[in-house]
Amino acid sequence: MNLKQAGSGADVDERLAALMTNANAVRAITAAVEGTIGPKGLDTMLVDRFGEVIITNDGVTILDKMDVNHPAAKMLINIAKAQQAEVGDGTTTATIMAGALVTEGVGQVLRGVPVARVIEGIRYGVKQVLSQIEERGRKVTDIQDPILRNIAMIAGREYEDIADLVVEAVQLIGVEKLCEQHFKLSDIITAEEGAGNEVFMGVIVDKERMNQEMPAEMIDAKVLLVDDALEPEEMEDEALSTETGFKRYIDFQDEFKCNVQKIVDLGVKAVLVDRGVHAMAEELLTDAGVLVIQRVANKDLRRACEHVGARMIKRTGLKKDIADIEKYLGFAARIYEDEKLRQIRILGGGGKPMATILVGAATEEVVGERERIAKDAASSVQAAIRGGYVAGGGATEIAMARQVEKMRDNVKGMAAYGVDCVANALKKPLTQIVQNAGFNPLEKVEEVMAAQLKAGSDTLGIDCDTGLVADMLSQGVVDPVPVKYHAIKAAAEVAVAILRIDTIIKKKEEGAPAAKAAGGVEAGMPDF
To answer: What pTM does this model have?
Structure first.
């Protein structure tokens, strides 16, 4: 997407040209994802110059794959990526909210409100919203609570089979593991063409055994993990040209052979290697009936290490005594190769219990999308377990908008107009959800606000099938608190950063002659 210079016409004050340019760029990005939100949201087709096609309604995927040149647009995309990294879902909401805040902010500036006052009001309003969301959150007290399946269904775009897989995995893993700071449920998900849906306690290594002569299955196996290449120590070519160097090379070969023999003598039945395996080691281990998997991805290697209860060893560590090397070994009840899917499964590890969610896909084209859907569902469920949940479907944002409007009188001076920006931006998610469902957004937003006020409830929204006001909580339409919290926080951060930009200057290229950098400041968007 090439976002051209905009907003620098004669009717726009030259001082506002940068702000208008950035606002138009943000609006273009927001427009690309807003049609995907809600139960009636549609998909986006992404096509590259080679004709490769991705069809998805995953916000961060759309943003990540877009061809974008404008720096403000890139800022918005980066905030969506940060949202994905933080909680794994809510990127579309964060993007829509950020776009709305920028649009509302620019509108107030054009009315004559100083940017500094707008920003002050936005910060005040968002601070109140974030504290309110945490207070309104409802905790998940039982891992069997059916609300978790509802969360998985919503984040998983109504795919029942994926929601069931995620919930089953959650119940296998348990709350303690899910609440660990560095554990991400989405990391245990893999999708494979031709596979069946499955949840099992164990680890998948997306590799085949090194050669067909090695056993395809091992029972009650000692496991060694080499975080290195299983090869002799390397020597410089110049050293090999001398008699001393060649003798040293022969010594290295003999030492390596002895080290590999130690693996055999220890009764190791499976070896996972981070990098390549030397032909000598392959031959010795094949003859000994050892299953070897080489060039294992670091992520898979670490999961396998944790599951079998091993410690990873470097090739130089194999110089140690056999008794010392044995301390590095792990154990697995069963290791086998799935020849159809061309992967290795490690089950019944002697270390920490590890679950794997295998999502089946009928064709290669849908593998990626099925995996993205499952990861979103898993991330949302884990977020709800950690931080609770609130009513979804835009209902909570409307309740927050009503609260923010009441707080407007607490702000002095023109900063109140910044508070208005927050209140109006909070209405945007529901506006877009009902618009995607085919209803009049102005009418429905007003209906919800009136209904919430009359009932004294913050859980009322719009049923997208009937268009009627309904209780989102009773319908099981909920959002995790961390997803909502971080989406609004991220949206405010990027909106404030964009509104603060007063001038855009084309930076000279590193190493370019000074003359090329001359030309001064352009009022509008420079030619990037």
So the answer is: 0.78
